[in-house]
TrEMBL record:
InterPro entries assigned: Pept_M3A_M3B
Disordered: annotated segments: 1-31
GO molecular function: carboxypeptidase activity; metalloendopeptidase activity
Listed GO CC annotations: cytosol
SUPFAM superfamilies tied to this protein: Metalloproteases ('zincins'), catalytic domain (SSF55486)
Gene Ontology process terms (BP): proteolysis
Official protein name in the record: Peptidyl-dipeptidase dcp
């Protein structure tokens, strides 16, 4: 189906619907390196609980760098360079947490419970660091505000609208007392 939007529309999604190739960690571990198993399942028999903390730390640092790059870029905000880029950020953290929380749900142990307790506040602070980023939120608002009102475009921007709606309490445009409570 051809796109009825002009080529220079700021919210025209041009990225491929296929996921990007997986990026390995700086030092691949069995739990997070690309797998040859069907559907890229990790080799659960080779995963060590000690693999998770370094992967979480590296993944959070990597994602914050990616988010800062998105927030500080000079290009005009668009669906591709803001929304799609934000969705693609944090692939290392995403892989590590997906494996970890699947293991915690199916086969927990004391080490995993401790990791979960130790990292729950860190994950919350990490998420807040992203969603309380004033420059990033301004880019998201620009993209969603400039989106055409056609029904199919509303569906294409569903992610940005739902994310924007759910993060309104912590949004930079929210009243300062609300944002201050969110940072506590």
């Amino acid at each position: 189906m051809p796109w009825p939007l002009p080529w220079d529309s700021p919210c025209r999604p041009t990225a491929s619907p296929h996921p990007p190739p997986r990026r390995p960690l700086l030092k691949p571990t069995p739990s997070f390196a690309d797998s040859t198993l069907p559907l890229h399942y990790p080799p659960f028999d080779k995963i060590s609980d000690s693999d998770f903390a370094p992967a979480f730390d590296a993944g959070m640092a990597e994602q914050l760098k990616e988010v800062e790059k998105i927030a500080n870029q000079k290009a005009k905000p668009s669906f591709d360079n803001t929304i799609v880029a934000l969705e693609k950020s944090g692939s290392t953290l995403d892989r590590a947490t997906t494996v970890f929380f699947n293991l915690v749900g199916a086969d927990t142990n004391e080490a995993r419970k401790k990791l979960q307790a130790d990292y729950s506040a860190r994950f919350a602070a990490h998420r807040d660091a992203i969603w309380l980023n004033d420059k990033l939120f301004a880019r998201i608002q620009t993209c969603t505000t400039n989106a055409p009102s056609w029904a199919w475009m509303r569906k294409a921007c569903a992610w940005s609208r739902s994310t924007t709606a759910t993060s309104c309490a912590t949004a930079p445009s929210s009243p300062t007392p609300t944002r201050s409570r969110s940072r506590q």
